[in-house]
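Take a record.
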Amino acid sequence: MINLGAILKSFIYLISSSLLYPVLFLLVILTLVVILYAGSFFAEWVERLRLQKCSPQELPQLLQGGRKTPSVSHRVNKYIDALNTIAKTDTAREAAVENLLQTSTWTLWKGMDKLRILVRVAPSLGLVGTLIPMGTGLAALGQGDMTKLTTDLVIAFTTTVVGLAIGTCSFFFYTVRRRWIEEDVKNMELATELLTAEIMRGKDEIFAAQKN
């Protein structure tokens, strides 16, 4: 008679054991991703440290007329360039400006998805990488193979450390960068409001001239 329980246990054990090396490989890849992201993060951090300080009352004056200013990030200045290009068109400028704002905001927040995934996935992979060697290590302990047990325990604990370290760094990057993006979105909305007001004022002047 076929022992269904033994077959299922063997199948689950085979699946669990086969996941160890993919998990280790993913942890190595995620470590490299975090290291590369740390370079771009600190580059932007240095850039923001060099921004000229200005009060909230002065910023609208600096952005008036679609002017770029060293008081905002390169993303905002790039957005201002796109706004100036739209301002030179003659048709559907209001719709184009609104679409540009929504698209730029969506793109910024979309760039945060990678960090959000790392915050969740890295500790989970570390936990998986811990439990798999623990199972094989306990099996080795039952057979009296202390060398195998020691090796599996080392893998188990190191994967936990790596997963938690990746998750912690990713959470730090995510928290700080979210604040930067919120600031950039605010400045983009301010620049959009100023440009929209100028467009409407120009239309009013044209209408008044035609009426006279």
